[in-house]
């Protein structure tokens, strides 16, 4: 089967959001069921840290020196959020 790869939904952008959500839900279900306990616990902790960081910075729209001084723990989240998609 040579040629171009199949692009099943490339002409149906109205389906993308639901398709992405279904994929994320499937992965999350798999992860919480089969991932080792240490990974699950770390994921929960990291998710909480990211949520708190987003709240402290108003969804990354208010990253100020004051916020960084008061909450230095958000720096790892900000660093990883600055990486290009292929850089992680």
Describe this protein's structure:
The chain has 88 residues and is mostly helical. Helices cover 59% and strands 0% of the residues. The protein is built from four helices and no strands. It has helices at residues 16-34, 37-56, 65-70, 75-81. The longest helix has 20 residues, at 37-56. It is extended, with a radius of gyration of 18 Å. The chain starts with 15 loop residues before the first helix and ends in a 7-residue tail after the last helix. The mean pLDDT is 84.
**Overall 3D form:** extended
- Total strand count, please? 0
Task: Provide the structure class.
Answer: mainly alpha
Spans of 5+ residues with little confidence (pLDDT < 50)?
none
Query: What does the average pLDDT come to?
Result: 84
Instruction: Evaluate the radius of gyration.
Output: 18 Å
Which sequence of SSEs, written as H and E, runs from N to C?
A: HHHH
Task: Kindly report how far apart the N and C termini lie.
Answer: 32 Å
Helix content: 55-70%
Strand content: under 5%
Q: How many separate helices?
A: 4
Largest sheet: none
Comma- or semicolon-separated keywords:
88 residues, mainly alpha, 4 helices, 0% strand, extended
Helices and strands in order:
Layout: H1 16-34, H2 37-56, H3 65-70, H4 75-81
Q: Can you describe this structure in just a few lines?
A:
By secondary structure, the chain is mainly alpha-helical.
């Amino acid at each position: 089967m040579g040629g171009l790869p199949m692009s099943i939904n490339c002409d149906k952008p109205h389906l993308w959001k639901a398709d992405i959500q279904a994929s994320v839900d499937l992965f999350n279900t798999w992860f919480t069921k089969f991932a080792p306990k240490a990974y699950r616990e770390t994921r929960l902790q990291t998710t909480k840290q990211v949520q708190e960081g987003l709240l402290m910075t108003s969804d990354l729209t208010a990253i100020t020196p004051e916020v960084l001084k008061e909450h230095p723990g958000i720096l790892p989240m900000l660093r990883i959020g600055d990486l290009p998609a292929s850089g992680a």
